[in-house]
Design a protein that fits this description.
Largest sheet: 5 strands, parallel
Radius of gyration: 60 Å
Low-confidence stretches: 312-324, 439-443, 497-502, 840-846
Number of helices: 13
Number of strands: 67
CATH topology of the largest domain: Methylamine Dehydrogenase, Chain H
Mean pLDDT: 85
CATH superfamily of the largest domain: YVTN repeat-like/Quinoprotein amine dehydrogenase
Helix content: 10-25%
Strand content: 35-45%
Structural class: alpha+beta
Number of domains: 4
């Protein structure tokens, strides 16, 4: 090795470790790590940078070049000496390179295996004994080189700088490389270790401090987060509370608004019926509660308003919208189907317009123009086929209205100066005209002329001009024997002694029994502009200003004033009697019409019909007297009910036998069967129940018929007979062929040992059910197959029947309700020969009265989801009838929904209307009550029908839903027309919208429903 060496470039490595991979592959890395770490300053990655071929070399195809480069870049050479290393070609090449290129004092040895012996005398290693060094080192050293013994380290497994012996051995090598004594190295290492330890602990302390700070910060953050979450939770709760309060406030506001609307609707029912209904609609929209629904139904069932139509109902050019000005007067035809309106405001538009008045609206039929300056009067003949128009030009034109849309002028009467009024006689064969008196030349002479209309095309004057004192109005009585002329005009002529009055105010009754010789009977005081006779000609009403006088003219020559009709606040324009004479209608410029009840003519009572769009010009009753039509000066026609649209009795069937205990309608609603004491069944033709007629009598031998029932196809009638309180009496079920109800034929009789109390056919099938027995004894129930009605086949018998109860089929015929034991039992009779008692998991479907008593009568709703049952309540100290409503969607688990209370006596029968929204009950208290059950949980009474007698036993509802029949023990059956009630209950909003056409306008909504967004009511 060289002793001196020229300066090398900057070293890359501090030491190069040469070793045998075969034996020192584990020890070499440990030596390298210890050299890295001994005396390492804390801020440096290592104390020394040491090259070891496996730890420092990357993949390189020319390995020796890389090793040679590392050798040249290393300051010291450390040989891990061992016999294997001495024999290793790579170790020997590395040693040779170092011998040639570097100095001896940079060559360090660490013995890992084998032996090293130095021969001081020879100044070289004792090669006889040395086994761990390669031969290249022979004679390489002048003095013994530094070497350390690591042979012990071969058996150690945990070698690191913490291993004291290993640290000491490697420290000797490290001291040489560092160029300092070993003790200084140890001190430096200790110092660096202490410094590192202090730094480590400082770092740990810092980390702990940071951790503490972080934990404190985290805790504070968590606390703040928790506080924030709590605040958010509180804010959310407050928001929810505020939302709930807003919801409650909104509900309260809607509730208050709805109640206010209901109250205002009630206040306006008479004066503004259209607005009243609109307010009810608004109340139901704003607050859709049962109370609001009841309010609308109540209004619909109590209002007289029947709908209206005007120029706004049509958008065609032929509609009333072409009339820009108001009409001056209007007249209805006697049947109220045609309206004639008179317009005089513009000379270009003078004329009469004919309108077709139907339920759907107002349609222009024809325009009858006139060249006259103005028109004075218009009159229809009694049959409506002829129209007379009187004009100021002195003419009267007759029009044939056989084809109303194509009126034809048939005659013109002339030479009638200042003609003021015309009137037809009841038979239409006579026409009366009157002319106003005047002072000018050519003016009218105040005369009455009668014309014969045997041939309308050629009217014949019956008499010369007859001077009358009052000549502005003329009218025939319905019997044709009386004529009334009236006037509000004074006229006269001058004479030497002064002015002589020739014509004055007042009215005169004439006897026109002989048309060619009218005879004055009596003059009545006061002027009259719009007179009217009652249909029987016994009453006369005369209007003057805003009042009307009612006269008894049964003795025409001595009339008696019965009453003065006071109430209008402006002048009257028209009056009319109803066809039966019991009601009088008046029309006024105050925008109202009034109906006066004349049952006591001396004390007429009025009903105000308000809500017109202008002054009312004309009134007319329908032929049946149930409807009044009014027309105002804006040609708005309004229909009014002359009585409330509630159910009314239209017929009473009274017989000594065959009426009183039971009733049933045929499926087509054309035949009614009634039964009662005497064992007789009567069949009635009720195609028009108002004129019911008896079809046939079905005799029986047993004293009483307790029930009747039609089969589903209507060809068979079953009757249940027997006296339930006669212990010795027999009973029978009788089947009748009623295919031709006027010729009934008995087809089968099933005799029983006791009375038969009920009988019913299945709605869908050929099954018959009946119950019977005696009071306070064992009763029975049974099913028959009546596919062959001439030979009924017994199917099954039920025991434990309650004879006081009723039976009911579900509409699909699969479920039967029977009164058994202490309540009502439901049976599945899908297979009638093997009925199955419908049971829940623990007990049968037993409908027990929620209060005190057990179910007696029952009825299923048309959809089969509801069941109504009657019960007796003794809680008030007297027996009263209640109704319980049940949800039987799942018949095994009936659920009680509501209880109906209203009768003051026992309820004897119950039935659903075919529409499903009405329930009817009849009671021994003499009433029938109709209930709105559209919302079963909130039922309401909508009508109470008073019978002519008490103890109503049975009811029947027709399949078409129009009629109700009630039977009483006093042998009376009453037929009731349900009218609009079923439609109102089924769809009150639809009915109301059909009447009023539209809901509140946006402006009206703001007025009546402030603070709530506008909602259209009728769409």
């Amino acid at each position: 090795m060289r002793s001196n060496q020229s300066p090398e470039p900057k070293w890359i490595y501090d030491a190069f470790i040469s070793y045998s991979h075969a034996v020192d592959n584990q020890l070499a890395p440990a030596v390298q790590r210890c050299l890295h770490r001994l005396a390492k300053r804390w801020y440096r990655p290592r104390a020394l940078r040491v090259f070891r071929d496996e730890g420092s070399l990357a993949a390189n195809p020319d390995l020796w070049v890389t090793i040679e480069s590392a050798l040249r870049s290393s300051r010291y050479f450390i040989l891990l000496a061992s016999p294997e290393a001495a024999r290793s070609e790579w170790v020997r090449r590395e040693v040779s390179f170092w011998q040639e290129e570097r100095e001896r004092d940079t060559f360090l040895i660490a013995l890992t295996e084998g032996e090293i012996h130095w021969d001081a005398k020879a100044g070289d290693f004792d090669w006889q004994r040395t086994t761990a060094l390669p031969e290249q080192l022979r004679g390489a050293f002048d003095a013994e080189p530094l070497w350390v013994d690591l042979t012990w380290a071969r058996t150690e497994t945990q070698l690191s700088e913490r291993h004291v012996r290993f640290r000491s051995s490697v420290g000797a090598l490290a001291a040489s490389v560092h160029g300092i004594p070993k003790d200084e190295l140890d001190s430096e290492d200790i110092r660096q270790h202490r410094l590192a330890t202090r730094l480590r602990w400082a770092a740990i302390a810092g980390l702990i401090a940071l951790l503490v700070v972080a934990l404190i910060t985290a805790r504070v953050a968590l606390q703040q987060r928790s506080a924030a979450e709590q605040q958010r939770s509180v804010a959310e709760e407050q928001r929810k509370l505020a939302e709930q309060q807003r919801t409650v406030a909104e509900e309260q506001r809607r509730l208050a608004t709805g109640r206010a609307l209901l109250a205002e609707a009630e206040n306006l029912r008479e004066s503004q019926p259209q607005m009243s209904l609109r307010l009810n609609l608004a109340a139901l929209r704003v607050n859709p509660t049962p109370l609001a629904r009841v309010g609308l139904i109540t209004n619909l069932m109590n209002t007289r308003y029947g709908g209206g139509f005007s120029s706004g109902d049509s958008s065609s050019d032929d509609s009333l919208s072409s009339l820009r000005d108001r009409i001056e007067s209007a007249v209805f035809s006697p049947d109220a189907r045609t309206l004639a309106t008179v317009k005089n405001f513009s000379s270009k538009e003078v004329g009469v317009t004919l309108w077709d008045v139907t339920d759907s609206g107002l349609t222009r039929l024809a325009d009858l123009s006139s060249k006259a300056e103005s028109l004075e009067d218009v009159a229809f003949s009694a049959d409506g086929g002829t129209l007379a128009i009187a004009a100021r030009d002195g003419t009267v034109i007759l029009w044939d209205l056989t084809e109303r849309a194509r009126p034809r002028q048939v005659a013109t009467l002339t030479d009638l100066p200042d003609v003021s009024a015309v009137a037809f006689s009841p038979d239409g064969k006579t026409l009366a005209t009157v002319c106003r008196p005047g002072k000018d030349k050519g003016a009218g002479d105040g005369s009455l002329i009668l014309w014969h209309l045997g041939d309308r095309t050629r009217p014949q004057r019956l008499l010369t001009r007859t001077r009358v004192f009052d000549s502005e109005e003329v009218l025939f009585s319905p019997n044709g024997r009386l004529l009334l002329t009236s006037s509000g005009l004074l006229a006269g002529k001058e004479s030497p002694t002064g002015l002589v009055v020739t014509h004055g105010t007042g009215q005169t009754l004439w006897d026109v029994s002989e048309l060619t010789r009218p005879r004055e009977l009596v003059r009545l005081p006061l002027s009259s502009e719009h007179p009217a006779f009652s249909p029987d000609s016994r009453l006369l009403v005369t209007a003057h200003d805003r009042n009307a006088d009612l006269w008894d003219i049964s003795a025409p020559s001595t009339p008696k004033r019965l009453a003065i009709l006071v109430g209008h606040i402006d002048s009257l324009n028209a009056v009319a009697f109803s066809p039966d004479g019991g009601t009088l209608a008046t029309a006024s410029n105050d925008g109202t019409a009034r109906l006066w009840n004349l049952r006591d003519p001396t004390r007429p009572s009025p009903v105000v019909l308000g809500g017109h769009t202008g002054s009312v010009q004309a009134v007319a009753f329908s032929p049946d007297g149930l409807t009044l039509s009014t027309a105002d000066d804006r040609t708005t026609v309004t229909r009014w009910h002359t009585r409330h649209p509630e159910p009314t009795a239209v017929a009473t069937l009274a017989e000594e036998e065959g009426v009183g205990d039971a009733a049933a309608f045929s499926p087509d609603s054309h035949t009614l069967a009634t039964a009662g004491f005497g064992g007789t069944v009567l069949l009635w033709d009720v195609t028009d129940p108002r004129h019911a007629s008896r079809l046939a009598t079905l005799p029986g031998r047993i004293s009483s018929v307790n029930a009747v029932s039609f089969s589903a196809d209507g060809t068979t009638l079953g009757s249940a007979a027997g006296n339930e309180v006669n212990y010795s009496g027999q009973g029978a079920i009788v089947l009748w062929d009623v295919t031709a109800p006027e010729h009934p034929r008995k087809v089968a009789t099933e005799t029983r040992s006791t009375a038969v109390s009920t009988v019913a056919f299945s709605p869908r099938g050929t099954t018959l059910v009946a119950t019977g027995g005696l009071v306070f004894s064992e009763a029975w129930g049974a099913l028959w197959d009546v596919k062959d009605r001439t030979h009924p086949t017994p199917l099954i018998t039920f025991s434990g029947i309650n004879i006081l109860g009723g039976i009911a089929f579900r509409p699909d015929g699969k479920v039967l309700a029977l009164p058994q034991g202490y309540g009502l039992i439901l049976w599945d009779i899908s297979n009638p020969s093997r009925p199955v008692r419908i049971s829940s998991e623990s007990s049968p479907a037993h409908l027990s009265e929620p209060s005190l008593d057990n179910a007696k009568k029952a009825a299923f709703s048309p959809d089969g989801h509801s069941l109504a049952t009657t019960h007796s309540d003794y809680g008030s100290g007297r027996r009263q009838g209640n109704v319980n409503l049940w949800d039987v969607t799942d018949p095994a688990r009936p659920r009680h929904v509501a209880t109906l209370k209203g009768h003051t006596g026992e309820i004897n029968d119950i039935g659903y209307h075919p529409g499903g929204n009405l329930l009817a009950t009849v009671s021994e208290d003499g009433t029938a009550i109709l209930w709105d059950v559209a919302h079963a949980a909130a039922p309401n009474r909508v009508a109470t029908l008073r019978m002519l007698s008490r103890n109503v036993q049975d009811l029947a509802l027709s399949a078409d839903g129009r009629w109700l029949v009630t039977s009483s023990r006093d042998r009376l059956a009453m037929v009731w027309d349900l009218g609009v009630l079923p439609a109102v209950v089924a769809n009150p909003i639809g009915v109301a919208c059909q009447l009023v056409g539209s809901g509140l306008s946006p402006e009206e909504w703001k007025q009546y429903v402030p603070g709530i967004p506008y909602q259209p009511l009728c769409q």
